[in-house]
């Protein structure tokens, strides 16, 4: 399979990565300059350069509102993109995504439970609940999808994920509705929003996200092996079981931390790896970093779009991604030759 | 977020989205205007009549407090929040009164029916064109409370003085003695409080104030035009800032992004009193980087604004004195 | 074995099956009737079954009892009953027509389409009453057409079709979120009504419309049941047995879409009831029956139970859709597990 696709040379791919990095920089800059308040370019630059920060509100807005929000978007986006790529690799399934597979919903229901029932505050504590929820949902979905002779096929996995998501979302809603205060607090979080999440949340989840991303980058070779099939991978001397365990663990950390920070965001982990493969080919050593750069670009663009489309308020990034991502999901299901990936 | 909850409660009603489908039949079927013994002109302008003076009253929280101050005890009360925290109810003795609701939009009409009420008392909100508890967005079932008895209320109009006097009239029509020494004392206390307020304002003619309700995702700036107590403040000389662009669908507020929290720079912040605690100012300063960009917030010039709940002269006097105190302490050169 | 003994055996089986259908349908009707009355017995104070029935039939003349039963409890109970019937009918028609046990309108995006149109009409164009149902119908029709176009190539069987439907539903749900946020409809109760569905918020107009629709369309659906069963055998078989396949299919689809739209206008997009009603009815009736009436009754029983749980058994009253979602998902997972084990999915 892999040999039929022209192998692009490393230097070209490296250049592509640099271009994406520049693009991410541009989008991040757009995210920092766009907002409810009209701040001139010169002032943004001045603030970023560390001038007049304490005195002027433009400095505060730029550095304390927009920069943390943008950084969170970058990290969460990269995490969801990497989680999607890993899931698609390890399950050999083009429809795999932490959102679609119910992993984000699992993390969400545990976070909501931790906040409303156990009264836990502080993202540094409830992020652990998010990990637990992510792991449980993954196991549940994967077990059900694996039943039957042909194992966890793409559609089976996606459908089991949809069912788990529907059920868990109902539970989340139910828990929220019993507690009006919490409902208002979590209303925006639940649909996936970047607004109002600033420094404390960023510092709370950043260590997990960064650690997860670093480990994820090291998984490329192992995922390439798995892509050739379990037997071939084993023949190449790979420990398949170990790879799987590590991969799912990394996904749980990435998806859990991203969900704890931004709420359950769907579709981005599905769309981005496909986009990445179209750019760099099927080699996971490249797909992973490409996904990690592409996903935050998409997430930040969706966020900026939400600020423009939702003016004078804001539209949650989860809503934007739902509207943008669902048609792509439909197209992949409709036209994708799933058994071939 | 506690501060937003009552606000949300009020907020949600406003959205007259499904037209005016929620209008109540304010006249009971048995009421015949010609031979009626009791009548009262509702805030909506309709005259509500009954053959005998109502005695079994169900009232919304603040309205109940007003009636109770004249010695009229309702048989049932519905509130928008827990009766333990409701500003109007928390200090009242409610024994023997059935509590029919402690959440906005949810009234236990079945319990209400068992009380066999002959009058429902609830403020009339001219913007929403509905009485408290019957606005758009409440439970369909709650609206059926209006089928049990006629609904009357004084309009949430241009002045708390009018509102309090309106409930005095209502109480009188229901047979209460409105000239008891206690009531006169409260009125006198109120007049003295107004005098002190006017004096404080006169001493600082340049002092500006702004009604504010901060929330996690937005800052809400009050539009005095639809806040009777702020209109009273303005009438007595305090420069309460009118926001430039109140939200079209819900003109009680202008919604600001936190990025624009500094748009208005008053000398004194009047903080939505529902859920206000003095330590909140510091907490919000730590939580929202731009909160202290409102210079008055940074200077700590913050006072509780009795937002949308006052119904009696007694309560108004107490709250007014707190604002007067804040005005006396405020520096009129903080804001713009 | 002679021909006559075979004919005899066939007629015996048929008679047995007819008996079973009658018994099961009768049993379901009584279950629904009991649930309908029980729903009206519970509340802030408990009424006896006699009081409820007396008030319903007008044999007890007590204005305060009538107010509670007829004024307060009957509208919700009637909404649960009619919406349940409607979801059951429409779900089972879709499943048989598409020959796919997962192809219920709530899973292929049609409920969400109806909900999106209704909520857009209410929020953006400020329509009320009849027009809301009209919008819901328009939305359901558009969603059905969209699914038809999208499923053109691969047909409607298997999981892939369902996944497309889930994608379409997610798209519509995203747009519902967008419309709600435009309206600043941030009051949780109303937003939840349109996102998860609840039977307590229907107004009189919507309830009457749904009731009227059911009175006309439920008998029609029962009449079309034979055609539905024949269509399921394949177009050629149906045609050879004298059914105009296209006409029958259009009539069935139209009936299902209209009933569904009226239900969504009244209660929002309630998940899972339409999905599970048909299969449960089939299990009760035995193989290859597919009674529309039984599915409708199962739908009603499910929704009445869900409402009882949502409003009376839980510490805080919840939207009905929350309960159907939480209970329906495990069912769907079991269904998937079974189908997967048999290897008939995709």
Structural class of chain C: mainly alpha
Oligomer: heterotrimer
Helix and strand string of chain C, N-terminal first? HHHHHHHHHHHHHH
Mean pLDDT of chain B: 86
Low-pLDDT segments, ≥5 res of chain B: 1-34
Number of domains of chain B: 2
Explain what this protein looks like in three dimensions.
The complex is a heterotrimer of chains A (about 350), B (about 325) and C (about 350). Chain A has one domain: Orthogonal Bundle (ABC transporter involved in vitamin B12 uptake, BtuC), CATH 1.10.3470. Helices cover about 75% and strands about 0% of the residues of chain A. Chain A contains 14 helices and no strands. Chain A is globular and about 65 Å long. Chain B is an alpha/beta fold. Chain B has two domains: about 160 residues, Nitrogenase molybdenum iron protein domain (Rossmann fold), CATH 3.40.50.1980; about 140 residues, Nitrogenase molybdenum iron protein domain (Rossmann fold). Chain B is about 30% helix and about 15% strand. In chain B, the strands form four sheets. In chain B, strands 10, 11, 12, 13, 14 and 15 form a six-stranded mixed beta sheet that branches. In chain B, strands 5-4-3-6-9 form a five-stranded parallel beta sheet. In chain B, strands 1-2 form a two-stranded antiparallel ribbon. Chain C has one domain: ABC transporter involved in vitamin B12 uptake, BtuC (Orthogonal Bundle). The model of chain C has no long low-confidence stretch (mean pLDDT about 85). At the A-C interface, helix 5, helix 6, helix 7 and helix 14 of A face helix 6 and helix 14 of C.
